[in-house]
Specification:
The chain is of the alpha+beta class and about 240 residues long. The protein is about 25% helix and about 10% strand. It folds into two domains: about 110 residues, no CATH class; about 90 residues, Alpha-Beta Complex (DNA Primase, Chain A). The chain has seven helices and six strands. The strands form two sheets. It has a four-stranded antiparallel beta sheet. A two-stranded antiparallel sheet has the order 1-2. Helix 6 crosses helix 7. The chain is globular, with a radius of gyration of 20 Å.
Length: about 240
């Protein structure tokens, strides 16, 4: 999913793991066909929902444990994992819930782009609708992110990263064991030296936050400095 720039979230389970994808409102059958089209060569992978429609003779579909739900057989609640180090993103349930609150939904536009690039059969989506955001002026942050583009390429100007996005932490030198990583698909970096005691999550952020912290700037200062660098209007 990372290569396709599709946000996904890894959850541990009793026999391996679950990869959760969260969509904008979309018929379950269409979401299922979209996911199956991306996994043509994988075996022994279960995709839920398992059916395009309910059998008229039954009232319910397949039983699915919701994220952070208690497993009926094991009695355990399984954590979400950091995709880089496969460790729980938080040690507490509240920290996990906070992590899920930030989960990105797969938009209809993203599905259309991936479908076109993969030459998937169309249409997969409901009738086109006009987004209320179309036509509005982008905020300074949105314009900067558009100019920055790939966070890996931007951060790699300041930190030597390997192909997996790992490098020596610029905030805690000397970092003999690489403790800094960029999640290219999700667009954020992680500093494994710093742990938020309240949420149990590692410090991190987007490319703008990386530059702000690296340069020791305030929020307004980093917007102005990067806007000048990219020749953008920095009015905030």
């Amino acid at each position: 999913m990372d290569q396709l720039q599709i946000p996904s979230y890894l959850e541990a389970s009793r026999r391996g793991g679950h990869l959760w994808l969260f969509f904008e409102p979309l018929p379950a059958a269409q979401a299922r066909r979209f996911v199956l089209s991306l996994l043509p060569s994988l075996e022994r992978i279960e995709v839920f929902p398992k059916r395009d429609e309910l059998n008229p003779s039954v009232r319910y579909g397949n039983l699915v444990r919701a994220p952070l739900g208690v497993h009926q057989r094991s009695g355990s609640r399984y954590p979400f994992l950091d995709p880089l180090n496969l460790k729980p993103v938080s040690s507490s349930l509240f920290g996990m819930l906070e992590y899920l609150q930030q989960a990105q939904r797969i938009s209809h536009d993203q599905i259309a782009e991936v479908s076109a690039a993969s030459e998937l059969p169309a249409p997969l989506l409901p009738p086109a609708r006009v987004s209320p955001d179309r036509g509005r002026r982008l905020s300074p942050i949105e314009r900067l992110k558009a100019q920055i583009g790939d966070p890996y390429a931007f951060i790699n100007q300041y930190v030597e990263l390997d192909a997996a996005g790992r490098g020596h932490c610029p905030f805690h030198p000397p970092d003999r064991n690489p403790s800094f990583a960029v999640n290219r698909a999700a667009g954020y970096w992680v500093d494994f030296h710093e742990l938020n005691p309240r949420t149990g999550r590692y410090a991190g952020g987007d490319a703008i936050e990386f530059y702000r912290k690296l340069r020791g700037l305030t929020y307004k200062e980093v917007i102005r400095e990067l806007s000048a660098r990219f020749k953008l209007d920095a009015e905030i």
